[in-house]
């Protein structure tokens, strides 16, 4: 059974940093990992993606501030978030594509406020 567990969320001040982690268990490989977020009253937004061949994509709103990376041997992926803004406040989810199946974690809350 595939399970994704996010951690690292919390409260940060504007301009601050957080690093989110996503740990996968039960997987036999992966193709793409995404970080999504959902702010109150808004739809899911793709924040960043990392492919198996190390290509990355970022939403325009986070480019230059967020970095997605992975530690394949640990089945762990990260989202380093720098220069946080209040509008980054949301629940952050990781999603993993294995073959033709995708899996979601439960999410971790990020709140950016002074």
Brief rundown of the structure:
With 114 residues, this protein is mostly beta strands. The protein contains no helices and eleven strands.
Describe it:
Helices cover 0% and strands 55% of the residues. The chain has strands at 3-7, 10-12, 18-25, 32-38, 45-51, 56-58, 66-71, 76-81, 90-98, 101-104, 108-112. The strands form two sheets. Strands 2, 4, 5, 6, 9, 10 and 11 form a seven-stranded mixed beta sheet that branches. The mean pLDDT is 96.
Low-confidence residue ranges:
none
C-alpha Rg (nearest Å): 13 Å
**Helical proportion?**
under 10%
Secondary structure tally: strands: 11
> What percentage of the residues does DSSP assign to strands (E)?
over 45%
Number of helices: 0
Main sheet properties: 7 strands, mixed
Order of helices and strands: EEEEEEEEEEE
Write the layout of secondary structure elements.
Blueprint: E1 3-7, E2 10-12, E3 18-25, E4 32-38, E5 45-51, E6 56-58, E7 66-71, E8 76-81, E9 90-98, E10 101-104, E11 108-112
Parallel strand pairs: 2-11
Antiparallel strand pairs: 1-3, 3-8, 4-5, 4-9, 5-6, 7-8, 9-10, 9-11
């Amino acid at each position: 059974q595939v399970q994704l567990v996010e951690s690292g969320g919390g409260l940060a001040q504007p301009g601050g940093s957080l690093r989110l982690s996503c740990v996968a268990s039960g997987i036999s490989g992966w193709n793409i990992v995404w970080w999504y977020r959902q702010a109150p009253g808004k739809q899911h937004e793709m924040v960043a993606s990392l492919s198996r061949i190390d290509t990355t994509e970022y939403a325009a709103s986070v480019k230059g501030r967020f970095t997605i990376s992975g530690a394949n041997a640990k089945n762990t992926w990260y989202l380093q978030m720098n220069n946080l803004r209040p509008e980054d406040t949301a629940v952050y989810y990781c999603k993993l594509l294995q073959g033709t199946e995708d899996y979601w974690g439960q999410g971790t809350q990020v709140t950016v406020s002074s």
